[in-house]
Write a sequence for this structure.
């Protein structure tokens, strides 16, 4: 038999069995007096998934296949024509795989890289606490410690948005196609389920293990510093936050603190200002909460690395920073349309008439407000929108410049995959053109307006964009 004949024969068999199942189900639904229309995805779309499944699943090892219960449920849901349920199952399998990979690493490193609130971080101690993390926190944390690549994070964040928008929780499954479903399955398998962590993530795990269990000497540090200098910016930031957290833990031994001192200055020097200011804010939080030992160790650490200039000047910045974080968390979670308004209402009270934002929080503030203003796959929170407009109206050149630079942020550029977000981002660019006279900023704003929607998420990688920011 020719290969073409075998494929056609298999296709006919699948078609016959799926048609028979659908007819039987419709008869049963009719007998029960239940709706029969728009319940199942069309047979033609199901066939696209089923015929492509073998080549996608074969990317898994035999052992991994035997453990992938949710993938079996995925196949069953696809065959039945329930694409919304299938999308849920492939996401559940992906989340389980991510949790398993996190467990293989330094769990404290993961939590320190993912959770910014020191009080909340205290509640996360073991692998059992992973289930408490929201999915967006899990994938973002995996990006920061190197389990996910930039591309993998973008793909997963998009699938997560689609899962929230078009899963069984929302009646949109008939808008899903077979090729979309099989493509998302393949992405999850390639980027997570069948993928090994990056070399840099493995090296960080080894380093943290050695810091905890061995006594390092100054002669050991040069190769460590050389390796740290080659790491991506996000992983450096995560590493610095982790060793800061270890240093300020009252239970940590003197020998571990001595090890940390040997590498702390270099880690601090190669980290960006955002994470340095974040650690300064954590020092003030320890002070306000009367965590005397943690406060003293935090001061000792920041003083030792020469970072006193990054300490906040007053409690206003703590409250302001916490308010930004609360709004961000509300926006990124479920039911954000209903939870955002109260946080937006509080945040707008911290904005002076001048619109001047503390430089330590400007980046986070602009990113959060712009993300909330362009919305997500569902749209924008109507009850909070006026607050966002009032804050956007006070943007000055410093904030508008950050707005122009946001596509370089991996989390933000992932949002620009969504059509509604693309339109809102361009709408803001047009608005800011009227508000600034800065030639460099105007050039970027015009570039954003002219860029095709499907290319917007990659605009920061273009030579034109790069040349403007290096002038």
């Amino acid at each position: 038999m020719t290969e073409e004949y075998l494929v056609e024969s298999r296709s006919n068999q699948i078609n016959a069995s799926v048609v028979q199942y659908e007819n039987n189900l419709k008869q049963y639904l009719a007998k029960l007096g239940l709706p029969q229309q728009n319940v199942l995805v069309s047979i033609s779309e199901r066939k696209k998934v089923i015929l492509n499944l073998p080549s996608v699943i074969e990317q898994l090892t035999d052992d991994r296949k035997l453990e992938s219960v949710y993938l079996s449920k995925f196949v069953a849901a696809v065959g039945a024509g329930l694409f919304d349920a299938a999308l849920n199952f492939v996401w559940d399998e992906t989340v389980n795989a991510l949790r398993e990979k996190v467990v293989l690493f330094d769990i404290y490193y993961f939590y320190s890289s993912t959770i910014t609130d020191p009080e909340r971080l205290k509640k996360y101690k073991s692998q059992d606490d992973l289930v408490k993390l929201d999915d967006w926190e899990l994938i973002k944390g995996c990006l920061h410690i190197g389990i996910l690549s930039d591309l993998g994070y973008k793909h997963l964040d998009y699938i997560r948005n689609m899962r929230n928008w078009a899963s069984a929780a929302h009646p949109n499954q008939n808008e899903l196609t077979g090729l979309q479903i099989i493509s998302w399955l393949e992405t999850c398998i390639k980027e997570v389920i069948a993928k090994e962590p990056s070399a840099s993530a493995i090296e960080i795990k080894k380093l943290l293990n050695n810091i905890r269990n061995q006594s390092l000497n100054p002669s050991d540090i040069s190769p460590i510093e050389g390796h740290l200098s080659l790491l991506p910016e996000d992983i450096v930031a995560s590493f610095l936050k982790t060793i800061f957290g270890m240093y300020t833990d009252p239970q940590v031994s003197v020998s571990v603190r001595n090890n940390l001192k040997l590498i702390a200055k270099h880690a601090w020097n190669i980290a960006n200002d955002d994470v340095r200011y974040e650690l300064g804010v954590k020092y003030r939080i320890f002070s306000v909460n009367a965590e005397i030992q943690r406060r003293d160790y935090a001061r000792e650490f920041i003083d030792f690395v020469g970072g006193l200039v990054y300490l906040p000047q007053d409690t206003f910045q703590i409250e302001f920073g916490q308010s930004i974080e609360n709004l961000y968390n509300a926006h990124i979670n479920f039911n954000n349309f209903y939870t955002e308004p109260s946080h937006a209402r509080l945040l707008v009270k911290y904005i002076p008439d001048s619109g001047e934002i503390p430089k330590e929080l400007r980046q986070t503030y602009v990113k959060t407000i712009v993300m909330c203003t362009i919305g997500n796959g569902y749209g924008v929170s109507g009850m909070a929108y006026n607050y966002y407009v009032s804050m956007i109206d006070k943007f000055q050149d410093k904030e508008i410049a950050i707005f122009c630079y946001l596509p370089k942020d991996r989390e933000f550029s992932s949002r620009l995959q969504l059509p509604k977000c693309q339109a809102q981002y361009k709408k803001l660019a047009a608005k800011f053109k009227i508000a600034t006279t800065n030639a460099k900023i105007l050039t970027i704003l015009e570039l954003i307006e002219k860029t095709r929607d499907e290319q917007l998420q990659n605009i920061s990688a273009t030579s034109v964009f790069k040349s403007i920011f290096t002038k």
Notes: The chain has 25 helices and no strands. The chain has three domains: 3-193, 199-310, 333-470.
